[in-house]
Design goal:
The protein is of the alpha/beta class. It folds into two domains: 6-155 and 336-348, Glycogen Phosphorylase B (Rossmann fold); 164-334, Rossmann fold (3-Layer(aba) Sandwich). Helices cover 43% and strands 15% of the residues. The chain has helices spanning 15-23, 27-32, 48-60, 73-81, 97-101, 108-125, 136-140, 187-203, 219-222, 235-244, 258-261, 266-273, 303-315, 317-334, 337-348; strands spanning 6-11, 36-41, 64-68, 89-93, 130-133, 149-151, 176-180, 207-211, 227-228, 249-252, 277-281, 297-299. Strand 5, helix 7 and strand 6 (149-151) form a beta-alpha-beta unit. It is globular, with a radius of gyration of 21 Å.
């Protein structure tokens, strides 16, 4: 197979990243243009890189490779030895791994895992023709590491729901639903605004809060009335959940930390995919796409401002619905998958540097 007709995702298991930026967004369009797309799992078992590497060579010599976030050390060594057997190689990254490994506000297990990736990231970067990041700020982290660094902001891969839930007046059985759908990496961000949620839930009776952190949800919030903490879902299950559930308001706090500086605006799409209007931290990357009072709210870090923003939406349901509607329009435009298709199509016939 020649390099201009085949892309292979050499996967270390970063399925959300693979899906959002390539497999579920660009790949269908690439196939319509005659470009084959495959996914090959980079097994972590001892010696697998050499055994499975022979299979990769046999099937995909000359193909372009896409590496997402990380690759096991054995595979990095194998790929260095066989680099010339493949076409254009791209490294796709959507987080500042080094910052994550040093951020004391993040869970210890997460920092350790990020540290393992960070130790070999330079070796990975040295093997590729291009580094593709999910935001401009993250791209800057690689300017000293590689001569070809480009940006692909998140495409929208989730279907957008009707906003019928905004037309139903809150009642004892249909409370306003407020959701936080960040991972444990955003636990400190949530804890920071928790006084706003505590105040809201103790003073109102028409709000239900969902925090998808399971046992990792802050105890100070879990004990409050009408707060649910479902367990985090695997990627495929989460996509189903998004399609089948809705929220009215989504929370996306983002503190001023080196790790958060490299974040993309993917949470804008997550909230919009559940039919919600978002309240976002008033800083990059949300300041790039959120127009305050038009398609969401931008607030500073003080918990009192988050409480005020929540009250504003709750007391102005028509305005909240209008913002949710505009967010859906903007999400479709900003996250148009054709942008991702054209981005990868240009690289499908690229010549390795």
């Amino acid at each position: 197979m020649s390099s201009h007709t085949t892309w292979v995702v050499l996967s270390d298991g970063a399925r959300p990243t693979e899906d959002i930026y390539f497999l579920a967004s660009a790949a269908p369009g690439l196939r319509r243009h005659g470009v084959a797309v495959e996914r090959f799992t980079a097994s972590r078992s001892f010696g697998a890189s050499w055994v499975h590497g022979r299979s990769l060579l046999r099937r995909y010599t000359g193909a372009n490779l896409l590496l997402c976030r990380s690759l096991p050390l054995g595979w990095l060594r194998w790929l260095k030895r066989h680099r010339n057997a493949f076409g254009y190689i791209t490294y796709l990254i959507d987080d500042d791994i080094f910052a994550a490994s040093n951020d004391q506000t993040l869970p210890t297990a997460y920092r350790k895992r990020m540290g393992g990736i960070a130790r070999h990231q330079s070796r990975l970067v040295s093997l590729v023709d291009e580094v593709v990041t999910a935001s401009e700020q993250l791209a800057r982290c690689f300017f000293s590491e590689h001569t070809n660094v480009q940006v692909l902001t998140p495409p929208l891969i989730a279907p957008l729901p009707s906003l019928q839930h905004f037309s139903l007046p809150p009642s004892s059985s249909t409370n306003w639903k407020i959701g936080f759908y960040g991972t444990r990496a955003h636990l400190a961000d949530l804890v920071h605004i928790s006084p706003a949620i505590q105040s809201l839930q103790t003073q109102r009776v028409d709000t239900q809060v969902e925090i998808m952190l399971g046992s990792y949800a802050p105890e100070s919030l879990v004990v409050l009335p009408r707060v649910n903490a479902p367990c985090p879902l695997p990627w495929e299950a989460f996509k189903v959940y998004q399609r089948e559930h809705h929220c009215h308001i989504g929370l996306a706090p983002l503190l001023d930390t080196p790790f958060n500086h490299g974040k993309s605006f993917i949470k804008f799409f997550d909230i919009t995919a559940m039919g919600g209007v978002g309240i976002y931290s008033n800083r990059y990357p949300y300041t790039e796409i959120v127009r305050h009072g038009k398609n969401g709210l931008l607030v500073n870090d003080a918990p009192s401002e988050w409480r005020s923003a929540l009250e504003h939406l709750l007391e102005n349901p028509r305005a909240a619905a209008k913002m949710a509607q505009q967010a859906a329009v903007d999400a479709k435009n900003i996250g148009n998958v054709e942008t991702a298709v054209q981005f990868w199509l240009k690289r499908s016939s690229a010549v390795p540097q």
